[in-house]
Amino acid sequence: MLIARLIADMDSVETRLDAAMGALAAADMPVAMAGMHDSCGDVLQLSLPEGDRARLTGTLAEHFGECDLLVADHEIEVPRLFVSDMDSTMIGQECIDELADFADLKDRVAAITERAMRGELDFESALKERVGLLEGLEEAAIERCLSDRIRPVEGARTLVATLRSKGCRSVLVTGGFHHFADPVAEQLGFERVVGNRLGVAGGALTGLLAGPVSDASTKLATLEEERAQLGEGARVLATGDGANDIPMIEAADYGIAYRAKPKARDAANGRIESRSLTTILKLLGIPEREWIDEATPA
């Protein structure tokens, strides 16, 4: 069984749905049911008795364009664990790029970040290179960067708070830094944080990391560790945007790429192209009346 849910421009939706269903039928993946979801009226749901999940995702993306979608091989339900990347996923910025701006190095650092997130550079080497460029920057710049530059993505707090109200544990796991991730996690309502630590001595950055590197393998290991504590059958949601998020996205029941780089988007069975993270709540079938408003503390 395959279940697909998507949110798309409703103009000519019937024509595009007919074309998608025709393409799926030609691929021996006939659609048994298609209609608007009962709880979320702007979500189109398709059910297929059998088929390939990746092929279904690709076919829907081909016919509906840059839509928000989620495909699963079971009835979609509220997850019990949510593991998320931070930079460009739960917040709209790359923290190291913004911090580099205080050293007049943003363009240089951001170019390395972009290539690393696209999977063109080894993550650990790229991280150490960028951190090395910040040697000597005063530690006080971190606090200024946090207050002046770092902002949650629209819907981030509502997503975490609503999932938590449904009994879902939330973990923020990042290739970024605890200096940023800890306050972001507190602001958004995450219960655990895993990330890198910047070396600091004498009130300035040392250009080194303090402790082991938090990378793609760390993200996957964190997801698996947390899932094991929940027991068999617990559904897991993971979100991210870059190449270092791919292992955890692939391991999750609902691996959603948020406005992601191509490699991460192609690895995911869900994708969000619109701005608000509350779209995930719609795709999970949680009606808006049950959302916890962003203004309400988690």
From TrEMBL:
<dbReference type="Pfam" id="PF12710">
    <property type="entry name" value="HAD"/>
</dbReference>
<comment type="similarity">
    <text>Belongs to the HAD-like hydrolase superfamily. SerB family.</text>
</comment>
<feature type="active site" description="Proton donor">
    <location>
        <position position="87"/>
    </location>
</feature>
<dbReference type="GO" id="GO:0000287">
    <property type="term" value="F:magnesium ion binding"/>
</dbReference>
<feature type="active site" description="Nucleophile">
    <location>
        <position position="85"/>
    </location>
</feature>
<dbReference type="GO" id="GO:0006564">
    <property type="term" value="P:L-serine biosynthetic process"/>
</dbReference>
<keyword id="KW-0460">Magnesium</keyword>
<comment type="pathway">
    <text>Amino-acid biosynthesis; L-serine biosynthesis; L-serine from 3-phospho-D-glycerate: step 3/3.</text>
</comment>
<keyword id="KW-0718">Serine biosynthesis</keyword>
<dbReference type="InterPro" id="IPR023214">
    <property type="entry name" value="HAD_sf"/>
</dbReference>
<keyword id="KW-0479">Metal-binding</keyword>
<keyword id="KW-0028">Amino-acid biosynthesis</keyword>
<dbReference type="GO" id="GO:0036424">
    <property type="term" value="F:L-phosphoserine phosphatase activity"/>
</dbReference>
<dbReference type="GO" id="GO:0005737">
    <property type="term" value="C:cytoplasm"/>
</dbReference>
<protein>
    <recommendedName>
        <fullName>Phosphoserine phosphatase</fullName>
        <ecNumber>3.1.3.3</ecNumber>
    </recommendedName>
</protein>
<dbReference type="InterPro" id="IPR050582">
    <property type="entry name" value="HAD-like_SerB"/>
</dbReference>
<dbReference type="InterPro" id="IPR036412">
    <property type="entry name" value="HAD-like_sf"/>
</dbReference>
<keyword id="KW-0378">Hydrolase</keyword>
<dbReference type="InterPro" id="IPR004469">
    <property type="entry name" value="PSP"/>
</dbReference>
